[in-house]
């Protein structure tokens, strides 16, 4: 697969949601699914189904690097299968592998959902399914990872939306309007 040259590939009509954990990718994905009718594909859920393990189990038993390899393989498979007309909600660290941002952009219109570190902490602090935050100082981890990942999210995304002060309807409507502009129109799901 030619991963380096996006322009030779037929563009996919998917909406791809990227961003840090707790920024609303799953929730916004469900809203877009309702409004547009495109199938919702959550990459973490797909990887869990494929492996028969939860994300924390994969991190604990196989390590983060193995999990990141599974993410890359999933993206490659979506491109091989010519996946189209879907909302793809990704894991927060998917952009950390250098080969993944071009794959995400090949899949479609990439939207970076962002929010403040305080919002991320309040949205994720009671969730034990966040392996990277199972530590003594999760706020320090959030701040450090956001600092590392923000430039990668920015380089990958066609659009950034801060979810801190908007409601889900406003966010999903904004994404749909921008996606229509990006694609010229949004075809109906098949």
Short synopsis of the structure:
This protein has 190 residues and is of the alpha/beta class. It is built from 8 helices and 5 strands.
Characterization of this structure:
This protein is an alpha/beta fold. It has a single domain (12-183), classed as P-loop containing nucleotide triphosphate hydrolases (Rossmann fold). Helix content is 51%, strand content 13%. It has 8 helices and 5 strands; from the N terminus they run βαβαααβαβααβα. The chain has helices at 25-36, 43-51, 55-62, 64-80, 100-107, 117-124, 138-156, 168-183, and strands at 14-18, 39-42, 86-89, 108-114, 159-162. It has a 5-stranded parallel beta sheet, with helices on both faces. Helix 3 (55-62) packs across helix 4 (64-80). The longest helix is centred in the C-terminal third of the chain and has 19 residues, at 138-156. Mean pLDDT is 87; it is low at 1-9.
List keywords for this structure.
190 residues; alpha/beta; Rossmann fold; five-stranded parallel sheet; 8 helices; disordered N terminus
Q: Considering DSSP H and I runs of 4 or more, what fraction of the residues is helical? A: 40-55%
Basic shape: globular
Report the total helices: 8
Helix/strand-derived category reads alpha/beta
**Topology, number of strands:** 5
Terminal-residue CA separation: 25 Å
- State the order of secondary-structure elements, H for helix, E for strand: EHEHHHEHEHHEH
Structural domain tally: 1
CATH superfamily placement: P-loop containing nucleotide triphosphate hydrolases
**What is the makeup of the main sheet?**
5 strands, parallel
Question: What would CATH call the class?
Answer: Alpha Beta
Please tell me the CATH architecture by its name. Answer: 3-Layer(aba) Sandwich
Spatial sequence of strands, sheet with the most strands: 2-3-1-4-5
């Amino acid at each position: 697969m030619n991963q380096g040259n996006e322009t030779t590939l037929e563009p996919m009509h998917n909406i791809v949601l990227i961003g840090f954990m707790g920024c609303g990718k799953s929730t916004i994905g469900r809203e877009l699914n309702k409004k547009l009718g495109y199938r919702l594909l959550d990459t973490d859920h797909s990887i869990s189904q494929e492996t028969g393990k939860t994300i924390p189990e994969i991190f604990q038993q196989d390590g983060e690097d193995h999990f990141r390899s599974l993410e890359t393989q999933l993206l490659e498979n979506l491109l091989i299968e010519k996946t189209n007309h879907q909302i793809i909600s990704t894991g927060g660290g998917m952009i950390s592998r250098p080969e993944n941002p071009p794959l995400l952009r090949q899949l479609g219109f990439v939207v970076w959902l962002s929010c403040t570190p305080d919002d991320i902490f309040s949205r994720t602090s009671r969730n034990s399914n966040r392996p990277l935050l199972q530590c003594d100082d999760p706020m320090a981890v959030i701040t450090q990872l956001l600092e590392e990942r923000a430039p990668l999210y920015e380089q990958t995304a066609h659009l950034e939306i801060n979810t801190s002060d908007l409601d889900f309807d406003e966010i999903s409507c904004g994404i749909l309007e921008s996606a229509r502009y990006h694609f010229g129109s949004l075809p109906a799901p098949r």
